[in-house]
Design goal:
The complex is a heterodimer of chains A (184) and B (126). Chain A has 6 helices and 5 strands; from the N terminus they run H-E-H-H-E-E-H-H-H-E-E. Chain A has 184 residues and is α+β, with helices and mostly antiparallel strands. The longest helix of chain A has 27 residues. In chain B, helix 1 packs parallel to helix 2. The chains are: A alpha+beta (184), B alpha/beta (126).
């Protein structure tokens, strides 16, 4: 294969790093977080913005890790080929964290209304809902677009998501969080 | 009861639980693979400590740089437990320590402070 093409593409897209395929492990996630910390340091990203980027990255990749694990444990058929990446957009000086993985239709049905609700909420509403949910003690195991996606939305400037049907009972789920870097 | 120390890892904080000093300290990052499992020894220790082994004054130092949402829920449960103890008349001081440049850590501390109005919860800039 022509590796330069891939490199050029990654550079042009401002991709800092990505993980594709295989099952994400806790070690892989923490090593990527470390790499991300170095990247933030080199580029002089404020501690506040970088903390938000790390938190969102951890949240999204642990979501994917836990989803694969639960499928594995349930012995259900599952495509582990997930993608998670962190990129920089120089046009508006923002970082983005993007994840993409395959979900069952039943999970998509649970998540979609919750994500739509979060997307329609103001920052204050998100914060309020986050604290309500945390206080309620519900959603203990963080499944199906609960407090995790509120945590992400609380820490970024906007979110985007898309479910694409790939077969009768499978959807490709794409989620992106954008974090604007305020000038120091 | 014995003191408990857990070393810091890339994704879990250093935990220092000292009975003689009346000290409960957490420092570092918190995004364990299984949050409830990881914090169980700490939660068990804290429960035993406040069941008769506690000092007249207990200090809790929380210096968490960033954490995932399940840690956030766990910390909530932890402060909930502390509030119960305070309601029984124990004296506890909580320091939420954050870096001056880290607004997110400050904001997280402010949220806990508002959620637990009865606690002596101080936001301490490093």
């Amino acid at each position: 294969m022509d590796i330069t093409k891939l490199e050029d593409f990654l550079d042009d897209s401002g991709i800092v790093f990505l993980s594709y395929g295989g099952i994400l492990s806790q070690d892989l996630i923490s090593n990527m977080t470390e790499a991300l910390e170095k990247e933030a340091e080199v580029n002089n990203v404020s501690l506040s913005a970088s903390t938000n980027i790390f938190t969102i990255f951890v949240e999204l990749s642990q979501n994917m890790m836990n989803y694969s694990k639960s499928k594995n444990e349930a012995n259900e058929e599952f495509d582990p080929k997930g993608l998670v990446l962190v990129g920089y957009n120089k046009e508006d000086n923002s970082y983005y964290v993007l994840s993409r993985n395959v979900l069952d239709t039943t999970d998509k049905d649970k998540m979609l209304p919750k994500l739509e609700e979060i997307k329609s909420m103001s920052r204050d509403e998100i914060k309020k809902k986050y604290r309500e949910l945390r206080r309620s003690g519900l959603d203990k195991h963080n499944k199906g677009a609960g407090i995790g996606f509120l945590e992400i939305s609380k820490r970024c400037d906007n979110i985007d998501f898309k479910f694409t049907k790939i077969s009768e009972n499978k959807y490709q789920f794409m989620f992106q969080a954008n974090i604007l870097i305020k000038k120091k | 009861m014995e003191n408990l120390t857990i070393d810091e890892t890339k994704y879990t904080p250093k935990i220092n639980l000292n009975m003689e000093d009346g000290l409960i300290e957490l420092k570092g990052k918190s995004y364990p693979e299984n949050t409830f499992e990881f914090y169980k020894p700490m939660m068990d220790w804290v429960e035993s400590y406040f069941s008769g082994c506690e000092q007249a004054k207990t200090i809790i130092n929380f210096e968490i740089i960033y954490f995932n949402s399940s840690s956030s829920k766990l910390f909530f449960d932890f402060f909930d437990l502390i509030e119960e103890v305070v309601n029984k008349g124990k004296y506890i001081e909580i320091n939420w320590i954050y870096d001056a440049e880290n607004d997110s850590a400050l904001e997280a501390g402010e949220d806990f402070k508002e959620d637990f109005e009865k606690l002596n919860f101080k936001l301490v800039e490093k």
